[in-house]
């Protein structure tokens, strides 16, 4: 700080050098008059002595005029200098008065600022750590979910439905085959019905043959009766043949009746079989349609589920990527924290510096002015990031470069 | 095949969390140190396939930590990636002299970090 006392003393003790000069010049001018008289006296009033005396007097007069002008100029200059010095002293006193207590304020307020910055930095750090932790946990869960959805469970469901459809179709095919077998059976029964018709015809033939045989045996008996005693034996034979033909006829009729009964049963069986076959075919058709419908519905549901699962997985992946970006963005906290630490440390450094200066001032030590440029240069050396340097140099803080990687 | 282990050294818990998340997601095991001094205690003979270290840390900075780690026979050849806000050439030269294999400036993209890790990590 400039020494005000010295300025005061310098201003108040400014010597009136102009007075000395005026006195000296006046003496010279006054000395010139007797000198001119001396020249006239020595020259005896010659033209030369008159000329020299005149020149001397003119010079004396000029010197006197110049001396007076010089005196006024010096007086003005001294007055101006004195005014400037007075103003400087006043300015210094005003500055001193303005700065009075600034150091004290700084010493008191700087630690408060540093603590406030540290508190803000600390709160931000805690919040960011919590955020980061939660986001990391979210990302982990999403990752696990996406991994789980990629284990092929959806495809397994589709495969299971496809297999089920094939197996059910195989069952339907087996049932159709069984139905076809029944048709063969029906054909066999129909054929059997045809055979029974033939059997009935054959039974009728048997009855007819028996009837003819009966007539033949009756004629033989008549002829045997005509032969008399000689035909008695033949009559017995003829009678037996007639009895046999009657039995044959009865048997033929019974066969016919039985065949008719069997045929009726076969017909009923055939009709029932055809009815069952028709119902079976209808049931099979309905079953096939129901199976197809159910499988189609299951397939649609499974496909829908699979699509939803895929959508969820894609959305999860998107959210996971977004969280990754958020986590990258949250790295700003590390940079902000470092910047705030540097500001805090510099505030503390300034506080310590002011305390030291105050102690030195109290001991009457000389205090050189603080070198602002050196202070700023020292501060710049502590920077670790390019944006800090940019701000320091009054430039717009450049956005932090992303992932600059150098391999050695 | 057992997982590979990576040591993360950073005084910022949030950075350790972000790096850890990226590495765990890629199938690595992660152990952490909160500064150089703390990280040295983790170099107890266990197999560590790669080290990722910050530079500016309290107690012991990253350059001093890497220098000390490289003097340990078990970790002489363990690759080191410096992860820092510093991007000055003199700091990078110091990191290289200490034995680092790569210099990554924060903020980093996890994908790029993983690419650097997979390029340098021990087999």
Written overview of the protein:
The complex is a heterodimer of chains A (408) and B (123). Chain A is 88% helix and 1% strand. With 408 residues, chain A is an all-alpha fold. Chain A folds into 2 domains: 171 residues; 165 residues, Helix Hairpins (Orthogonal Bundle), CATH 1.10.287. The radius of gyration of chain A is 72 Å and the shape is rod-shaped. The N terminus of chain A is likely disordered. Chain B has one domain: Rossmann fold, CATH 3.40.50.2300. Chain B has a 5-stranded parallel sheet, sandwiched between helices. Classes of the chains: A mainly alpha (408), B alpha/beta (123). Chains A and B meet through α4, α6, α7 and β1 of A and α1, α4, β5 and α5 of B. β1 of chain A pairs antiparallel with β5 of chain B. Chain A: InterPro entries: MCPsignal_dom. Chain A: It holds the Pfam family MCPsignal.
The portion of residues forming beta strands of chain B comes to 15-25%
The helix-strand sequence of chain B is EHEHEHEHEH
Gross morphology of chain A is rod-shaped
Question: Which superfamily, in CATH terms, is the homologous superfamily of chain B?
Answer: Response regulator
Unreliable runs of chain B: none
How many structural domains can be distinguished in the coordinates of chain A? 2
Please work out how many helical segments of chain B DSSP would assign: 5
Number of strands of chain B: 5
Average pLDDT confidence of chain A is 82
Mean pLDDT over the residues of chain B: 92
The H/E string of chain A reads HHHHHHHHHE
> From the 3D coordinates, which CATH architecture of chain B would you assign?
3-Layer(aba) Sandwich
Structural class of chain B: alpha/beta
Poorly predicted ranges of chain A (pLDDT <50, ≥5 residues)? 1-17
Structural class of chain A: mainly alpha
Distance between the termini of chain B: 11 Å
